[in-house]
Amino acid sequence: MQRSPDDPVTAAPVPGQDRAPGQDQPGSVESRGIDVVPDDERHGRARELFALWAAPNVSYLSFVVGGTLVLTGLSLGEAFAVIVLGNLLWLLTGFIAISGPAAGTSGSVISRAMYGVVGNKAVVAVTGWLIASLYLALNWSAASTAGLGMAARLGLPDSTALNAAVVILIAGATILVAIFGHATIVRLYGVLTVFLTVVFLALSVMVLGHTDWSYTPAEPLTGVAHLAVLAAGFTLVASAPLSYANSPDLARYLPRHTSGASITLATAVGAFLPSVAFTTIGALAATTLDMNDPQAALESIMPGWFVAPFVIAVVVNTVANNGITAYSAGLSMQSIGVRLPRTLAVLVIGVIGTTMTLFALLVFDFLTAVNTMMELVVVITGPCMAVYATDIVLRRNRYDGHALHDESRTGPHWYAGGVNWAGVLAVLAGAGAATLCASSTTWGGPLSSALGGVNLAIPVGIAGSAVLYWILTRALGTLPSPTASPTVQR
After folding, report:
1. Domains observed in the chain
2. What is the distance between the alpha carbons of residues 400 and 169, in angstroms, rounded to a whole number?
3. Which of 5, 83, 203, 406 is deepest in the core (most CB within 10 A)?
């Protein structure tokens, strides 16, 4: 019996092996999984990435994060500076996206070049699967909270059954988007970007009408405590772009020779503009509203008729955000050897994320969960992004998609026992150093504590991992010849 073309058993072609034609059309289920996209199936332009990254970032969570910055004691000017600086890391997300068209496969496969065939399984299991599931739960919790608030307005009694029904409906819509896959996502997200922008711009106008432009913190921060709050704010904002290591997955269908600068800018600007705009609005809202309960605070300034469009926009944004997360998480499951077609892998991720969401709604305070996760997850995501970006520079973005799928002991990415110790040690050392320098409501690293609680996890983790990887690749000789050419895909 012939296997599905996205079955991981057949989705890892031997270099030079022909593949059956794939299906990547809007409204049809994408047939390819992690297998290499041949040149004759490449399509699209870099500019389509703008809307693809804008839709997930015209976000309710941006309002939440902006409000948190002011709640922690920052002035408006300081909050604005932190928002811009933290969101500049979208350039890193955009930069690693250029490896997708170069290799024609997913980022979770490309990273075999950095960690080795075996080492990559462990890294991707954490960054592409576990952390992805946590982000699914976080975003579904936000949308479910908004949906349950709307249900309460309609007079529906609060119950565990209602909680479960709302979560399952939102998760189901998300998983459906992820199952249809790349082409549907590209087409759909252009429409969603317009809808979300209109709704959140209308909300922004309402916020601006209630903004205290002369706002100053009741107790201005000084000294080390001031630096600690600034660093915590930067970490909170920067954690979003650092969580999106899946940008190569969404660019891999572009023609091989698509401009790298165009890919980087379309991805980065698409995410940067809405993130900066709506996080800033969240900060302005906190000048007069109690953003400890952001949904209630924002609804208090809305006319009654606007509450429903607002809740729908929150849910739609969550579907957009989690749609690309679930899509990439399914590819990650295939890349670590889980023998499931892409569609079934997405369903498994959806079940795991839904279970986590129900647990979060019943056990954790939403705002606390947001802050804790976004402050601490960077100790892993920062070093991994740094190693990925450094590898692109060292290899001059020359990746052979077919060779990356060669998992044999004689393959070019087997290294030493299946592990590229340059990448693994760089990430472990960077994550360890970042943990020592991290600070949150639940964790204070010893180095951070010695500095008065200043959170240096991001600069230490990124710079440390990048430099160490650069040194170790040369010391261990794990890079190919700079003149080597990637195999031309058929």
Report:
1. 45-381 (1.10.4160.10)
2. 40
3. 83
Max Cα-Cα span within the chain: 71
Tokens, residue 156: 């529906």
Instruction: Express each pLDDT in 433-456 by its tens digit.
Output: 999 999 877 778 899 989 888 999
Nearest to 433 by CA among 473, 382, 478, 484: 382
* Chain center to CA of 371: 16
In 3D, which of 411, 386, 406, 376 has the Cα closest to residue 467? 386
At residue 108, the pLDDT reads 95
Sequence-distant (≥ 6) Cβ neighbours of residue 121 within 8 angstroms: 335, 336, 337
- Distance between CA 468 and CA 451 in Å, rounded? 24
- Look up residue 343 and give its two tokens: 């569609």
Measured at the CA of 98, the angle between CA 456 and CA 427, to 5 degrees, comes to 35
347 near 175, Cβ under 8 Å?
yes
Condensed to tens digits (0 to 9), the pLDDT of residues 386-410 reads 999 999 999 999 999 999 999 999 9
CA distance 118 to 415: 10
Query: Is residue 5 within 8 Å of 35, Cβ to Cβ?
Result: yes
Write out residues in the chain with pLDDT < 50, as ranges. Answer: 1-19, 367, 482-490
pTM: 0.89
Residue 444 β-bridge partners = 439
Place of tokens 């900060």: 283
